[in-house]
Amino acid sequence: MTALQTPQQASSGYRILREADLRDYLAGVPAVATRLGGSPQSWTIDEVGDGNLNLVFIVRGATGGLAVKQALPYVRLVGESWPLPLSRAHYEYLALTHQARLAPELVPAVLHHDEQLALTAMDLLEPHIIMRKGLVAGTVYPGFVDHITTFLARTLFFSSDLALTAAEKKERIAAFAGNHALCKITEDLIFTDPYRVAEQNRWTTPWLDLTAADIRADLDLHVAISRLKLEFLSSAEALIHGDLHTGSIMVTADDTKVIDPEFAFYGPMGFDIGAVIANLLMAYLASAGHERTPGERRDFEAWVLATVEQVWTEFARKFVDLWRENATGDAYPLALFEGQAGAARLEAERQAYMARLFQDTIGFTAAKIIRRILELAHNIDFELIEDSRVRATCEARSLRLARAMMVETESFRSIAAVTEAARRFRDWQPEF
User: Fold this and answer.
1) Beta carbons of 78 and 53 less than 8 angstroms apart
2) What is the mean pLDDT of residues 225-246?
3) CA pair distance 381, 397, nearest whole angstrom
4) Are 106 and 128 in contact (CB under 8 A)?
């Protein structure tokens, strides 16, 4: 047993793999060895993980490459003082295989999974880059809207009561119910810690000190975030990715792959949609901090806001189309809506359903923005702005938008209202 293993991990055969161990292990997996080709001694192995939780290796051989991800028994960003169950790798594998059935072109293919080692080997995505890095650089991605809305619509609809029988849905909820440790991270870091004094909170000080204090004292905001937390805790609408930010999306100009669904569980659909929109809005409001000359990124910023609008409108269109064509679930049984009048009433209800989902999405969007500025894990959209005062200005604009969206959610009746508000806050100057 190593110093990093619990007795349970040691007895299960878990060990943290370093380069030599990983090479020997992969050589014994036929599908992997065939993909890589050549002698195992000729393979190159580089640990490239820059996330908060796991080890990630890039392995290249004579005939191909792959990515290998191994869960650590703790939060990598913090260390052994914050333990995490290795079972999260199992839930990630379940989610990846589910997503691959529904949107096979939009997730990496899994070549091998070892539940004992909490390890998954999958396609090496090249020349893809993490989308967040591309957005910081001001790059536009013409295919992104179609890809991400297809992923969202298909993975959410086909895991919902609109497509599944009650028995199927309950069995699938049970399959992911054990992923509660990662849900707890979300419950704390997104829905609780930014609104209270918490040891691991951090922000751009001293500029945001008063803003952070105001948020900790804002009872209207506390009520709004508590309602969202209750929904996250209790609303098992569909299998959600659970961490669908622009750091979990890899892109080229014409391809998109969604990665890292280890936070997956059955939760509110608006959480995933809101995560995508929140990260786009943060990219927009951080953009001014990356300018070398004033106004040079205006075309990029216009594309980002157009993308925000299209993410919602295209998702909503595709989701409703799937509902019209695949109403096989126990919710809204077609037998109750027969004839022309019944069909018209059901269509009106579909639109009402989407309006409610939009309101949920607005709230979760705001929650995701606030957490990325005031708690432990920040975005490079802001972090790579070197001048701390400029960075804080961009962050303050984002917080101002987020508060309005969370507390005044009902005033945002359309996605155009969101982008219009973002434009207003783009040049607002906080009083530091």
Assistant:
1) no
2) 98
3) 13
4) no
Cα separation, 311 vs 308, whole angstroms: 5
Q: Confirm if 60 and 72 have CB atoms less than 8 A apart.
A: no
- Whether the per-residue pLDDT at 6 is higher than 90: the answer is no
Residue pair 124/26 in contact by the 8 Å Cβ criterion: no
Say how far apart CA 280 and CA 148 lie, in whole Å: 12
Distance CA 266, CA 239 (A): 4
Q: How far is CA 128 from the centre of its chain?
A: 17
Gyration radius from the chain CA atoms:
22
Cα 63 to chain centroid, rounded: 32
Beta strands in 125-279 (DSSP E): 129-130, 238-240, 249-251, 256-258, 265-267
Give the chain's count of helices (H) and strands (E).
16, 12
Q: How far is CA 225 from CA 17, 222, 415, in A?
A: 40, 5, 20
Residue 79 has pLDDT above 90, yes or no: no
122 DSSP β-pair partners? 67, 110
Give dist(CA 160, CA 236) in Å, integer. Answer: 9
Q: Give the torsion sign (CA, 299, 301, 306, 307).
A: positive
pLDDT tens per residue across span 247-286: 999 999 999 999 999 999 999 999 999 999 999 999 999 9
Alpha carbons 155 and 149: distance in angstroms, whole number: 10
Instruction: Answer whether 17's CB lies under 8 Å from 117's CB.
Output: yes
pLDDT per position as a tens digit, 378-412: 999 999 999 999 999 999 999 999 999 999 999 99
Question: What count of residues does the chain have?
Answer: 432
Q: Across residues 413-430, what is the average pLDDT?
A: 97
For residue 107, the SS3 value is: coil
User: Which regions of 315-421 does DSSP assign to beta strands (E)?
Assistant: none
